[in-house]
Amino acid sequence: MKSTLKMIGAGTAASVLALSAAHADDPVSLTIVSWGGAYTASQVRAYHEPWMEMNPHVTIINDDGSANALASLRAQAQAGNVTWDLVDMLPSDAQLACEEGIIMPIDHDEMLAAAPDGTPPSEDFLPGSLGECFIPQILYSTVLTYRPGAFPDDAQPSSIADLFDVENFPGRRALQDRPGTNLEWALYADGVDPDDIYDVLSTPEGVDRAFAKLDTIKDHIIFWTEGAQAPQLLADGEVAFATGYNGRMFDAIEVEGMEAEIIWDGQVVEWDGWVVPADGPNLEAVMDYLYFATDTQRLADQAQFISYGPARASSSELVGQHADLGIDMAPHMPSAPENYFAPIVLDNDFWVDYGDELRERFANWMLQ
Amino acid sequence: MSDSSPDDGFVTFDRVQKSYDGETLVVKDLNLSIGRGEFMTMLGPSGSGKTTCLMMLAGFETATSGEITLGGNPINSVPPHKRGIGMVFQNYALFPHMTVGENLSFPLEVRGMGKSEREQKVKRALDMVQMGNFAGRRPAQLSGGQQQRIALARALVFEPDLVLMDEPLGALDKNLRERMQYEIKHIHESLGVTVVYVTHDQTEALTMSDNVAVFDDGRIQQLAPPAVLYEKPDNAFVAAFIGENNTLRGKVDAIDGSTCSVRLDNGSVVKALRVNVEGTGVQSTLSLRPERVVLGEGAAERPNSFEAEVLELIYLGDHIRVRMNVCGDDEFIVKVPNNADGRDMKVGQKAPVGWSIEDCRALDPS
Amino acid sequence: MAQADATMMGGAGASSGTEKLVTAEGVPLKRALERAQRRRKLMAFALVVPLLAFILTVFVFPIAQMMWLSVKNDQIVNAIPRTLEELRDWDGRELPDEAVFAALHADLMEDLERPRREQATGPMGIRLNYELSAARSAVSRTARAASGFEAPYKEAFIDAHRLWGDPELWRIIKREGRPLTASYYVAALDRQYDEDGRIVQRDENRRIYVSLFGRTLMLSVIITGMTFLLGFPIAFYMSILPMRHANLLMICVLLPFWTSLLVRTSAWIVLLQQQGVINTGLVTLGIIDDENRLSMIYNMTGTIIAMTHILLPFMVLPLYSVMRTIPPSYMRAAKSLGATPWTAFRRVYFPQTLPGIGAGGVLVFIISIGYYITPALVGGQSGRMISNEIARHIQQSLNWGLAAALGTMLLVGVLALYWLYNRLVGADSLKLG
Question: Using the beta-carbon criterion (under 8 Å), do C336 and B86 form an inter-chain contact?
């Protein structure tokens, strides 16, 4: 059964490759997997549409499957029937997928475009962003937001420490139902320097310390699961604080007009980017697309549609105004200097190594 | 009927009316008195109001107006479970999750009776219907006739003064039905309990009852003992509904005391007993039982005598049904005993028919 | 027809003595019968085959595969066979000797030569990490650097990652260096192996699954009870209504089936949240204070309300179909026998609805025990169920072995409960409508 599927899969892939090699302009359809919503929309406008204009024989099918991409990729690889061409995922997931061998290793300098001034990609992409199988696209962050109406005008919260101060800043807090970000913030609020957080967290005492700090606000927490829930809870007045992705919060505040403020203190920054499934059906077209979609101008273009920072150094000076709102996007980027004063850079290696254990501990803590 | 008279009014309906929709009356002005110990049958076609009457008596329907009394007390506002009336349902309504013994014990239990007394009464009731060995069975393990007996025993086990039966034999085959009719009759006689029995089967009604109330169109058409009902129907509906009946239609020509003469549509004049005729010149239905018609020899001596033609012969074993044309009526039936005369009949043969004045009743035109 | 002939001939043959029974055409009776029945059997088989194949491929096969995943353990065996061979005589106390490290080096070097897709060290690192945090980076970092190692390898490995100097890692390698494992089940029961290989309870702050199973059971029981309490009266009312009105009411009951999850969830949020319709209504009416608004969502209450709502039809439908078949004459009979309406209901009507209650209860219970989307959306922290953990392991942590072990345990639990139900009530009394 399995081997038959594999044979059919391999056969199809081979024939499609053969065809596309023989006739470069034969119709090709690429399945590109991303996070859906405003994020996919920004990719469509910044990457897909201009590229399809240049390559009229290609159609792009958008699949909003990134949230469970790792499981789907593994299932596709095991069934020997890879249907996805390109997947947008987090670097920690990319690391796991890479070690399982289900996505392709990337030679960044070989496969991607250099900066306009000739700087090779390996130097142009921001330090620490490249992965063995991972091509970064944007820098996003998980930020704390609050509802100004929940607090008196002269006592508005301004730091992560305020999140843990229920006495001076009462009200419920909406946090994501996973240990990531929450444990980092607990330590940060407890006085640990952002640079030392993961060193502390890899010791049992550090973990205890983080959970002890979380205990102090436990009765005031509502946990959210889906990214859309956080702004919703804020908008409904259900909570005073909510954590959320900075892009979604930007969208809710600037586009939807929600009453909320972002606290950039202790923002947890992370990359997001592309991985290429091994044995995908249209490798040639995918590499062609990647070369285009990750160049300096394209990454800068994406920032016109969503407030995530481009992953290339050379792109940042090209960031302009929001395409629809006409406001300057630079101040809304996580990487903007006025926002980047106390960032916590998410350590993917740490989370791949300690994630299972900490998730269990976190689930246990939630159950108590 | 035994020693109590039907008039002592153990159960009475006094000007009872019932409507379900507020527009039409299902029961129109019902007046009925049932004596203690009487076996009263409510007979009628479906939709005639007989079952509604029974349900009002049982308490499952309320009378829209009028009063029902039981033992002299009005019971309109007494809930069913306080009326103390036994009831046998059309589908027996034996509780499927209880054994036969538990079914019988149920009415005793809810009355708070002690265990040993219950057992004794259950046993007696089962013995009465010859089902003594079946106490441990479930209703589903019994045949229709057996279920019927159990339902009867259950309705009687708490010794009610009045038992209602709603077409209890409808689901049984013919032989079993006849046997059960006798059994019910015997139980009634030996216990002296009052029974109100609803059926649409006239044979059943005639076999079992002391009195039969014939229902039609929400009214009692006639209330009488079976023999009277058969011999002397008050109106055309009863005559047609009870037993087999020849019907001749015509106009009343003359009235002479208790008799009258009626001119049929083909011009023949028939002399008949005046039962339900208002005066001369009105339409009337003549009712004549097939077994009272004399065919052939002796027919000419009767006060009514006509020439008739044999149209069809139906052999029925003990007798032969002869369909004839009499006075222009093609459906005229005569019953002939299965003897030499009967066997010699031929289709197409002409023969005289005749009957007495007192066997031919002039009724309403219907 | 052939069969009828044969039977008749058979009768004749039997009376004529001991000779073999034959049909009119002289075919032995037995063979004629077999032939006639074979056709019927083939027919029956042909009717069943499509469904059988369907069930096998979409139901039995995946479940079998899931159960296989919960014990499958080839990651380490595939990656380092030589090392495992050398480890065979290791006592599990002190650090293994140089020979083991040399074998490990050889294994890693061989693996590096394989094509990327077939390299086994990656999966091995991920597998080891389930047992010991950071074992993954120990493997991956060492594998990348292994080509530069020189003897003595022991020091080189420990230099590359501290965990190579930890006997715990080696104990795990030795223990899990077998093609089958029970460790996923050990973890699913909140237990772990100690230094001597005994199974002991986990640290208290890492125990989750057993209490989650308990909570899932409890929530399922509560939800089943709620659907019964709400569904019984409505099913009863529908059963005594005329068909036309009953159907209308049925549509209302079935409405949650036809509403998308998104719409349903938003509706609950609008109704139940602290600034929601119900709370605002209660505050306006002065029943509760503005400060004491009720928490009815993002907690256990939310899960119970939402799931009761969704699963109500599964209780109402079997109840209704059973109640429809109970003639009103039973209640009337009971009343005529002297039972008060309440006694008549309790002793006569209610017992007859038991098959419907059983069917509805089993359905609701089994469905709710495996539900996960709704609890994830409205359950907050206290309203989550075991399926949420299973889904997380399938989709996010990718620990399919543990997910499979939890799933298998859930399956076995449900089967056990079903068996118990069968013993106590009898599955043949189930009436699903």
Answer: yes
